[in-house]
Design goal:
TIM Barrel; 14 strands; Enolase-like, domain 1; five-stranded parallel beta sheet
């Protein structure tokens, strides 16, 4: 089998109603407080690339880039005429063309990607519902949707200055008493004292605090872990962070940013410390969530509700079958990524301007 062609399609899929914050919160949009540099436009304007590697045997590898704003130049790699089995899977990671190559290797071998990642450790993983900053009434409405769709966990963005964090958590429990709530301020509880102030009225409830304060001093995370019964879970991006957190005993769990081999490495570090993990997302489109899913099901301690929310926060997954059902994502059984694209949806959401 030889690679014969490269194809790139730019996609943009709108969000479902009730997911993004109302305009008064100004988040995920220009001028939206600390997110302004990351969001030069509204998050609804983000694009992602669908890429395809074509071969002389008619087998196609598919992949997806991370989200980005505006126009983006992309040069296909110098792989023309190469055999997919000439590539070492451990040298391939991230997204885009490398994801497509991993898909193609799996298809060539007739094996799901999770086999390449080390084997199936669990048949499915928990997925949490996801919402941005909003008021308690809108939070309750989101919790009703989450409950109706079979979710057992809900993750909400927030910040200390909103002044409604505790009320929002209670609004969830008023609607769904058995729902786990992950409170994620992206470090914007700012201090240990602010975090403990919010934790005290929530102790005894099924609540997790993710990234409550800045991560420049993990001794402060250790202090939080010791001074509240609320589980403390930083969002980590690098193995060195994971090693320090485990060594210090500074967390009850952690969220892992990378989605491939680095995820697997960091999850093993957590397992050595007896900690559960979950896999993050960039609120991606469905195909990137599938890629993350393969790493997650190859990880026995990925047991907290993961952030693979792209398939239910956007109005279409771009896949022919739903990825998340009743708050669970099942390991795809087909070779490679193991999913099929809905080509009509791809055409509908292709960016042409």
């Amino acid at each position: 089998m030889k690679i014969t062609g490269f194809e790139r399609t730019v996609l943009r899929v709108p969000f479902r109603p009730g997911i993004l914050p109302p305009p008064e919160y100004g988040e995920f949009s220009p001028g939206g407080e600390q997110f302004s540099s990351a969001y030069p436009e509204s998050i609804e304007r983000r694009c992602q690339d669908l890429v395809r590697l074509h071969t002389d045997e008619g087998v196609t590898g598919i992949g997806m880039s991370g989200p980005y704003f505006g126009a983006r130049q992309d040069q296909p790699p110098d792989w023309h005429g190469r055999d997919p089995l000439d590539f070492e899977p451990r040298d391939l990671g991230g997204g885009g063309w490398q994801m497509a190559m991993l898909d193609l290797i799996g298809k060539t071998l007739g094996q799901p990607l999770y086999r390449i990642f080390g084997g199936l450790a669990q048949a499915s993983i928990h997925i949490d519902y996801w919402i941005a900053r909003m008021n308690p009434e809108d939070t309750a409405a989101a919790a009703r949707r989450a409950l109706a769709e079979g979710f057992t966990g809900l993750k909400m963005k927030c910040r200390y200055e909103d002044g409604n964090v505790v009320d929002r958590v209670h609004a969830v429990f008023d609607v769904a008493p058995k729902m786990r709530v992950v409170v994620d301020p992206n470090e914007r509880f700012h201090t240990v004292e602010n975090t403990l102030e919010l934790a005290r009225p929530l102790e005894g409830k099924d609540v997790v605090f993710e990234d409550p304060i800045p991560k420049d001093d993990f001794s402060l995370y250790k202090r939080l872990k010791e001074e509240t019964s609320i589980p403390i879970a930083p969002h980590l991006q690098a193995p060195r962070q994971a090693i320090e957190v485990v060594h210090r005993g500074a967390a009850d769990a952690f969220n892992i940013g990378p989605s491939d081999w680095t995820f697997l490495h960091m999850a093993r570090i957590a397992a050595d410390g007896g900690l559960p993990v979950w896999i993050a997302s960039n609120v991606d489109l469905g195909l990137f969530d599938v890629f993350r899913l393969h790493a997650a099901v190859a990880t026995p301690n990925c047991t907290f509700g993961s952030d693979l929310c792209g398939s239910f926060v956007h109005e279409h997954t771009l896949l022919t079958e739903p990825l998340v059902v009743d708050g669970q994502a099942q390991a795809p059984s087909g070779p490679g990524l193991g999913v099929d694209l809905d080509e009509e949806a791809v055409l509908r959401y292709t960016v042409t301007d």
